[in-house]
Amino acid sequence: MSETYNLGDRAFTFKGPDGSRRGELAGVIHHPEQTRGRRFPLVVFLHGLQVTCAKGRTAGTSWPCPRGSRSVPSYRGYDYIGRRLASHGYVVVSISANGINAPDHGGPSPEGMTARGLLVQKHLDLWKKWATTGGKPFGARFLGAIDFQRVGTMGHSRGGEGVVRHYQINAARGRPYGVRAVLPLDPSNFFRPVATGTALAVMLARCGGNGIGVEYYDDARYRLAGDRGAKHTVTVMGANHNYFNTVWTTGSGWPGASDDWRGGRLSACHPSQRTRLTAAQQRDVGIAYVAGFFRRYLGGEQALAPMWRGQTPRSVAPAKVLMSSLAPDRRDINRLLNASHLRRNTLGGQVTQAGRVSVKLCGGPRQLRCLHRTDTWANEPHLGFPDNEVPGLSILKISWSGRGSYTNAIPARYGDVRRYQSIVFRGALDFTDPRNPRRRPQNVHIKLTDAWGRTASAATLRHSAALNYPPRVVANEETPFLLNQVRVPLSAFPGVDLRNVRAVSLDFGVTPKGSIGITDLAFTS
Q1: Residue 378 is inside which H or E element, if any?
Q2: Do the Cβ atoms of 179 and 152 come closer than 8 Å?
Q3: How far apart are the C-alpha atoms of 152 and 164, rounded to whole Å?
Q4: Can you tell me the distance from the alpha carbon of 34 to that of 7, in angstroms, rounded to the nearest whole number?
Q5: Which of 208, 295, 353, 374 is in Cβ range 3.0-4.6 Å of 299 for a Cys bridge?
Q6: Nearest C-alpha neighbor of 342 from the set 356, 355, 358
Q7: What pLDDT is stored for residue 519 in this prediction?
Q8: In angstroms, rounded to a whole number, what is the distance separating the alpha carbons of residues 310 and 232?
Q9: What interhelical angle do 158-172 and 110-132 show, nearest 10?
Q10: Using one digit for the tens of pLDDT, what is the confidence trace for 205-256?
Q11: What is the model's pLDDT at position 476?
């Protein structure tokens, strides 16, 4: 069932970039038909920046909307996901943020992001009241029906940054709500808030923004020692930014709706190409991964675990999805955080190169460019904005012009890896480097060596598309150098004693030349 509520266009007071402002407290709730006698997890959706008002086909950005105009219902754009989650036993509240968007059209501001986080907290406070003592507009209908220690949040675009900011606000207030899962959907990341201690999934639209939201994953990976919250990135090939929201989708009838991707007909993202998803196909991805994330991490559905290890569900076909995962249960081999990791890895083992291989660190505190050739920072989302003082991701750039290897020794006390299922690293091919054959993948081999000198190798190309050449790179298109995970099961290394692994090598030379970036080398469960 779905119901709306509206406490007024000026019911929420917040600080905007230009001083005190007022916005609406309005939303839609999707819930199971029977709410008495059960306690359901609660998921809150927050939309991003869009026009606020409509008069016919004319868009406006003021708030409240002037007489004769209608409020643009961006918050209703995720009804298709909310209804699906409700059918699985969740209460889903999608909230309107037009009042916050109005001043934000002048440019992103820290006040705007904080206001978004406070708006989420205000709605949680309202629902705490309605589920505890009742009252208008729902009476006693939701008394006792919501479990406020199983809360999830999803934010799209600037709403993605807003829900991460909300996570911080809730933590600073003593965690009155148990926010166990946070999903930024193709988000902005202007001010680099970080969410640790919770499950996190960042969805990235390959035909949308430039992937800057990947920094939520980058920044959270090792921030909190012993973090038990799984971290994921979900890169959706062929998806644009807007079509996850039906109100923003071309043909919705609302001003501001558009295909936000811009480029030539030869690009893989052009609507005429088979590699581009239709709006309906993109919604299938939204249902599978947004609903699937909360069902897995709020509902604990183990049957959905394989998709969060990289197994693409059939329901999203023909979409291609690249998954990266940071499991709480893992053994980091080399985090590649600084120059010392060029010589000694995270486990204390020696790091060496052999043959015609060269290595260097890029990104990091100095935000050194990783691509061989680029005219814009937008090609390198792991670096962040050029005027942002927060360090970018440290990436190991490996180049070769013949056979060679990059090897991490494993100290004896860490050699028993039987408890783990896979070996992983994140990687990407440098599409600007002429050493990479155009439109051909790189096929790096991973080799394990045990204490007895026995070896076994596995080709990464058999297990991952992360080192593929980006589809149809077109001049002037902001193609991101975006790292995705290579995951190879340990069962692919027969004959090696997994009780006594002594070295992990990346072997090069299957293709005569090449250049890739990697990070986060680990054994993982």
Answers
A1: none
A2: yes
A3: 11
A4: 25
A5: 295
A6: 358
A7: 98
A8: 10
A9: 60
A10: 999 877 999 999 999 999 999 999 999 999 999 999 999 999 999 999 999 9
A11: 52
